[in-house]
Design goal:
The relative contact order is 0.20. About 15% of the residues have low confidence. The protein starts with a strand and ends with a helix. Strand 10 and strand 11 form a beta hairpin. The strands form two sheets. A nine-stranded mixed sheet has the order 2-6-5-7-4-8-9-10-11, sandwiched between helices. It contains twelve helices and eleven strands. It is of the alpha/beta class. Helix 1 packs across helix 12, helix 4 packs across helix 5 and helix 6 packs parallel to helix 7.
């Protein structure tokens, strides 16, 4: 099971549409990627099975079931990935007194972990109050209080992604160059395929030379089809993919887009166009607009989130490359600074393996930061 993917019975499927140009853009004759994108065509996915009304990966009741070994392995990878961040924080609570020096050291450690000034001040102030209120005298008690406060800050980011809200569910993927968009798409497609969801990928990154080939390889590995054009208009690729997904009653259509910096206004305008055209291909789409963030960017992710949210109205985040970073505190900063309008972190990644992209859990993340 793949974390917090929420399943519910969708509304009645629409009649198979007549695929016609519903936009003033010329819709290119996109094809399923086989050649020259890939040496062999990906295996077509059979129609999605009847939808379940159950929620995927429910949390087991305490004492009723043993812990999931796979989740335990993930927790170990998460702890290892955040070891540099945890090293800044955890060591402060060994053999120390609860005094002003501890709070000063903790403040410095949080800033070094890219928690940011505002978030750090809030955490230190709240921790002082909790120590005073609960009369904490042991350093381990203070560490537990800090973990509890981090969970409190991070919990608004912990939400499930509904994968049965429409047929198809259209997911648009955005991000800057090198954040790991295509790899994240491949991993997400793999997990969705394991959940018996038919998946269709759209190679909307028409700028990077190897982008279509990379996505086609993921399509072959996951046995899902890829809609691609050589040098085509990204909006036309997205339109054709959504139209194909509707015609086939595909469960999820994932649209890749080219990496771009928020300061590249013409490319951000193109991203807005892709979003508009997806909406013309299917009313209410895209249902999810996800931003892939490189965990090593630290505080810079706040500016990226704001810029992409302003442009295309983000619904969720994927944070990659958290393994080996000393900037794990940036997620706390993201949660605190956007506490009035949080954007959920659906998934985080701590490695290159296919299972190293997992659902975000506030409890697990906070424990990996300080324990």
């Amino acid at each position: 099971m793949f974390g917090f993917l929420r399943r519910k019975k969708p509304a009645a499927a629409e009649a198979t549409p007549q695929v016609t140009a519903q936009t003033d853009l010329p819709v290119a004759d996109a094809t399923v990627a086989d050649a020259p994108v890939a040496t062999t065509g990906p295996v077509a996915v059979p129609p999605a099975p009847a939808q379940s009304t159950a929620q995927l990966a429910p949390e087991p009741a305490a004492g009723l079931a043993p812990p999931d070994p796979a989740r335990g392995g993930w927790m170990n990878r998460l702890r290892q990935g955040l070891s540099r961040t945890r090293g800044n924080l955890s060591g402060l609570f060994t053999g120390v007194r609860i005094d002003e020096a501890l709070f000063e050291d903790l403040e410095s450690a949080l800033l070094m972990s890219d928690a940011g000034v505002q978030t750090t001040q809030w955490l230190i102030t709240a921790l002082r109050e909790r120590v005073r209120r609960d009369k904490l005298t042991d350093a381990q008690q203070v560490k537990a209080a800090l973990r509890s406060l981090l969970v409190e800050v991070l919990t608004p980011l912990e939400q499930p992604m509904d994968i049965d809200r429409a047929l198809p569910v259209v997911v648009m993927i955005t991000g800057v160059n090198g954040a790991g968009k295509t790899t994240s798409i491949g991993k997400l497609a793999r997990h969705l395929h394991r959940e018996n969801k038919a998946v269709l990928l759209a190679a909307g990154d028409t700028f990077r030379a190897a982008a279509r080939e990379q996505l086609a390889q993921w399509g072959q590995r996951n046995e899902v089809d890829v809609i691609a054009q050589e040098g085509g208009d990204p909006a036309a690729v997205a339109f054709d993919a959504v139209a194909a997904g509707r015609a086939r009653s595909t469960g999820v259509v994932i649209v890749d887009t080219a990496g771009r910096l928020p300061t590249q206004n013409h490319l951000m305008d193109e991203l807005k166009k892709v979003r508009r055209v997806i909406g013309k291909a299917m009313s209410g789409a895209p249902h999810e607009v996800l931003l892939v963030l490189d965990g090593n960017t630290g505080q810079n992710m706040l500016a990226q989130v704001k810029a992409f949210d302003d442009a295309v109205q983000l619904t969720g985040l994927i944070v990659t490359k958290l393994d080996g970073t000393a900037k794990g505190g940036a997620l706390a900063a993201l949660a605190h600074t956007r506490r009035e309008h949080p954007i959920p972190v659906y998934f985080i990644g701590v490695g290159e393996g296919i299972d190293d992209l997992q659902a975000f859990s506030a409890e697990e993340f906070a424990a990996a930061l300080v324990d």
